[in-house]
Amino acid sequence: MYNPTKDDIFAYALSKTLTKVSSPATVGLYSSCQNRINMILGQMEVFMDEEAVKIENEHKGKPRSAKQSLTSFFGLIGRMLFYRPVWTKTNQQLQDIRFVYVDFSAWHFAGSDLLWAGLAIRLFQAMQINFGRLQLALYRVCQHDEEDEYKKKIVENGTNNWRSKKICCCPLWCLVLVILVVPVIILIFLLTFGLPKPDEPDEEANKAKGSVNMLEGLIIASLGVPAATAVKFTFQMVKNLIVNQEKNTNKGMDTKRVSSQLGFMNEVRKEIWFLCRFIQFVELCEGRRIRVVLKITNLDRCAPKKIVAVLEAINILLSDEESPFISILAVDPDILVQKVNFADDCFSEEDRAHALLNRIVTLAFTIPPLCDESKHSLYYSLTGNSKIPEDMSAEKDNHRTGEPRNKSCSDVTEVLIPLEQSKSLTDRTTAELDVNEEEVETLVMSILTSNKGNLDQYMSDDAMSMRRVINSIRVTVIIMIALKKQLPEPEDVAAWVVLANQWPCRLSWIIQCAEDAEQRAAIDGKSVDATKTLWEVFRESKAELYVMSAQIEELLEQDGDPEMFERFLTVDFQFTVKDLKTFEEVTVNLDHTIRKELAQMRGTSRLKDSGWMRDLAPLPITTIINMDTEGVCKELERMKYPSKYIDKVESNGLNGMALLFGNIDDLKDLLDMTYGEWATFRLHFLGSLSHLRAQNKNLLPTPPQPQNQLLRFKAHKQHHYSSTASLVSS
Q1: Is residue 88's pLDDT more than 60?
Q2: pTM, to two decimals
Q3: pLDDT tens, 200-236?
Q4: How far is Cα 677 from Cα 123, in angstroms, rounded to an integer?
């Protein structure tokens, strides 16, 4: 029996969620490993298609086949020519779904000044390939009206999905049929009976000739009207087939005069709107929803300005209320954030990377890092000639028998499987990942409707944030069921997702501190108190967080109200370290780069306190904060300082907090040490703090700011520092 890897489960959970989320949606698929991103995207595509087939099989009404046949082709053409779609409440809630996948590698268009226009071109090309250039051109001629964009969409009651086009109260199809049939009947009649021959006198012959000329004129007129219409129709079709929007966009990109105008993006936006309406028309013909999955990769390899332009294009071009697009932003978030923050015109909190992504992304999914055994297997495979090492076969056998070598690491082989084998992999794992849809929906609804812990008051009033929470809850539930974990109380699942969404920096800090404590306990041979609350973990380390707050200003900006955070963990949801271990494995809506940066900064103050560097290496900030006066005296005694300095420390009650937050000049005057003694003391007790301050001074200067934006920035800074101060006051 084959055990699915965690990457299989992640791809499966995402595919299940994307069949339920409403479009438009933007998924942030975050990982530092491009191979894992590509593999999960490939698995998702297969899982989503299988999920679409499963949904169709569960419903009685079968939609039309997505494959083009002669019957469906002529049916689509006939509806475009002679009918108008009628939007009803029934056809606005179609259950069946199919996906159209569009790959957009930003690196391929990185040489263009307008990278976002390359995204639009890729969409045009994909629509022509999937639906046909002729169908798009015919829809533009027969159905498209630019003024419809400004008209309110009318949704009617009833079951009739089509209404025939009419001219003078006559259905167009009937009029066209009459115009085509009547001349044919007349022609058959004339060919059968022939024209009357004049054998009468001249006067009667002239009358007969006149009647024949009148009959011929009637025939020519009847044939001329459809002929003229056909010529006009053919001309428009040929024009749209030859001159399409892809060429117009390319022309606009090549012409600086055009591309610099405000109207260029508006023209592209109109074409995106045209594609949306065309897809809605095809949806009505097929009787199913159609979702265009736009996979955006390699964006983090582009220049900062172009990255921002693409993110804004996603927000502007693809964010129409009825847009069928699901954008998957597959990037390394660490690189993306750094580049966006150094882009031009980044003046305020709203312009920075995390805030920009929060305005766009409706589902953030961070792929957890590889475990140690996965790293070892990957390293072994890269050092050998073969793609899969020899011990991998044994590993696969262990998976099939249900006895993995390391039960804590079930994702041993995920990055080692070539992409071309992803379909065969999913064929084997689909049965294992068959999560009961009714169970998921019941749990999700119970979670969303539960208000036991007054969760509503912790929710942001931003609709985008609410959608992010709802989608994250669904993904979390599916992953927990697929991993066969015991589900906590419904309100606890929702509360944990909200905690990660509203206070990502503080939660990442708690997770890092808990992990460091666990590692230290393992080194010392001690056990960790699993009943310790997360607020206690935060309270013990908040002074250290405050010391480095100047370095993590942007990370703290993402957090909500600090007082509400305290109330969340102390009153309504008293999560413990045990709960942290339960949720940590399934917390995919928390950016791991935040924790990575916090760990890196915390590590700078944790030099090894051993050997010849013991008396010179700076003490960790955590150690100093927890020192009382007696601890400082013992450290000075160990460093063999004269007793007079120890007496001064004891008499003045100098503890670790006083050393860190007191004035350095006053401390120097109080101790009255020699220069050499003071240099050693300052390095040992205050070295970590000095290192952090030096880093803060070396930050790149902010670019010149316009007056109005500078005022916004100052107002934001004032609000931030009042929020940061609460780290020590709470």
Answers
A1: yes
A2: 0.72
A3: 555 555 555 555 555 555 555 555 555 555 555 565 5
A4: 69
Residue 235 burial by Cβ neighbours in a 10 Å radius (0-12, 13-18, 19+): exposed
In angstroms, the CA 218 to CA 182 distance is 11
172: exposed, middle or buried (Cβ count in 10 Å: 0-12, 13-18, 19+): middle
264-268, 281-285, 452-456, 642-646: which range is least confident on average?
A: 452-456
**Pick from 308-312, 383-387, 701-705: least confident:** 701-705
Cα(271)–Cα(128) distance, integer angstroms:
13
Cβ pair 409, 373 in contact under 8 A: yes
Q: Give the largest Cα separation in the chain, rounded.
A: 150
Any idea of the CA torsion for 535, 537, 540, 545, to the nearest 10 degrees? -90
pLDDT tens readout for residues 121-132:
888 889 988 888
Per-residue b/e over 528-565, b at no fewer than 16 CB within 10 Å?
A: beeebbbbbbbeebbbbbbbbbbbbbbbbbbbbebeeb
State residue 508 phi and psi, 5-degree precision.
Answer: -60, -40
**Residue of 558, 559, 367, 361 lying closest to 468 (CA atoms):** 361
Which two tokens mark 263? 């109207």
Find the Cα–Cα–Cα–Cα dihedral 564, 498, 590, 487, rounded to 10°: 130
Please state the φ and ψ torsions of residue 343, each to the nearest 5 degrees: -75, 165
Report residue 680's pLDDT band, with 50, 70 and 90 as the boundaries: confident
Burial class (CB in 10 A: 0-12, 13-18, 19+), 477: buried
